[in-house]
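hey
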């Protein structure tokens, strides 16, 4: 066989092997990750929970969050809203809160040099908190009425200091349905929850939309002061606690919480562009600038090969077969097998994690977009040009 044909077979074989590993990890993630919905609320008492909600121009998103917090069955909690909005977010929140005295609104203090806005808002809120537990949430979530009660019950029973939830990602627009499952799947592939939950593994991960932390542990590690400049604050706070020997757990919360992160391709690009590259380098503790550069190039290429290559190679093989009789049978069979396994695995993931099954056929398109976002994110960071989100520019170290 000629060298180009051999290289194609090697590439297809490697991609197929990764998809087999991906299938195994998806299955293990699903079966090996505790479900919050299965947790029984059997608390003898109900320790105070201080919910800290940072808001910045959330007028189109915040209503569902506030309503779902108001409807919580947990009997002992407060909500501290730290706002830094330039739109009418606060007016909307005040109307939603009404006379509910569990809620209070504070204006975010002037952002000190070196701090990320969200991290500083949560640090400010933690100083005002009266609870044994701090619950950091995002304004775009909606949670089941029993979510806080079940999360606290799990944390108290398992004697862990941090509990975070994998949410159900709500996808409504075309690009959300195509791109979001790809990113979500890749995050859980490179940092599987069953390893996050293992005390023998150094991997740590938290989902920023919902992080329950015991206050005394939070204060012992210095809160957000030690990670004040990190865009991926959720990854960093979980790593910080796990490194100090505290219990970190990531639960399947899809039945208890849903979130619509981004609403169009521009938001997806900006949102993931600010943290997808840094998140990976933090998870895998990549500090060298040279290694970061290599990660940006090879990471983007790997995403393209893994997600998009099987479909594109199948199309090329079929065209080759239709218009030429010289295509090696091995390439045609291997490209068909690799595509089928990639499609079946994507479909399996969509079904397990409440995705959009019919959009599994368009995974290759999502892979192209995600690979470009990863490359964009990497070079923005490495060139220190910063990425923009909600009117602020963020830079790496």
């Amino acid at each position: 066989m000629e060298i180009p044909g051999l290289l194609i077979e090697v590439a297809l074989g490697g991609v197929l092997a990764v998809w087999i590993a991906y299938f195994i990890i998806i299955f293990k993630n699903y079966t090996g990750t505790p479900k919050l919905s299965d947790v029984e609320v059997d608390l003898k008492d109900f320790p105070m929970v201080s919910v800290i909600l940072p808001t910045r121009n959330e007028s189109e998103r915040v209503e569902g969050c506030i309503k779902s917090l108001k409807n919580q069955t947990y009997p002992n909690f407060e909500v501290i809203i730290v706002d830094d909005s330039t739109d009418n977010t606060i007016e909307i929140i005040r109307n939603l809160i009404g006379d509910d005295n569990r809620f209070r609104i504070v204006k975010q203090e002037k952002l000190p040099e070196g701090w990320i806005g969200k991290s500083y808002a949560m640090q400010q809120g933690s100083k005002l908190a009266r609870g044994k537990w701090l619950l950091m949430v995002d304004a775009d979530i909606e949670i089941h009425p029993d979510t806080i009660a079940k999360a606290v019950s799990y944390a108290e029973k398992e004697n862990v200091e941090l509990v975070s939830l994998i949410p159900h990602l709500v996808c409504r627009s075309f690009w959300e349905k195509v791109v979001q499952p790809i990113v979500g799947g890749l995050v859980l592939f490179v940092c599987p929850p069953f390893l996050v939950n293992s005390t023998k593994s150094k991997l740590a991960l938290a989902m920023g939309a919902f992080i329950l932390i015991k206050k005394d542990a939070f204060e012992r590690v210095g809160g957000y002061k030690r990670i004040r400049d990190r865009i991926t604050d959720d990854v960093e706070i979980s790593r910080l606690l796990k490194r100090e020997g505290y219990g970190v757990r990531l639960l399947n919360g899809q039945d208890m919480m849903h979130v619509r992160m981004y609403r169009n391709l521009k938001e997806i690009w900006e949102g993931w562009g600010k943290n997808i590259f840094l998140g990976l380098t933090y998870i895998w503790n990549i500090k060298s600038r040279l290694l970061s550069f290599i990660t940006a190039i090879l990471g983007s290429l790997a995403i393209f090969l893994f997600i998009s290559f099987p479909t594109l190679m199948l199309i090329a093989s079929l065209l080759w077969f239709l218009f030429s009789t010289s295509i090696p049978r091995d390439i045609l069979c291997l490209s068909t097998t690799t595509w089928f396994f990639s499609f079946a695995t994507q479909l399996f993931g969509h079904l397990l994690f409440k995705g959009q099954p019919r959009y599994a056929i368009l995974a290759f398109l999502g892979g192209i977009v995600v690979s470009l976002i990863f490359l964009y994110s990497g070079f923005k960071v490495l060139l220190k040009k910063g990425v923009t989100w909600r009117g602020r520019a963020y830079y790496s170290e």
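The first strand starts at residue 49 and ends at 55. The mean pLDDT is 91.
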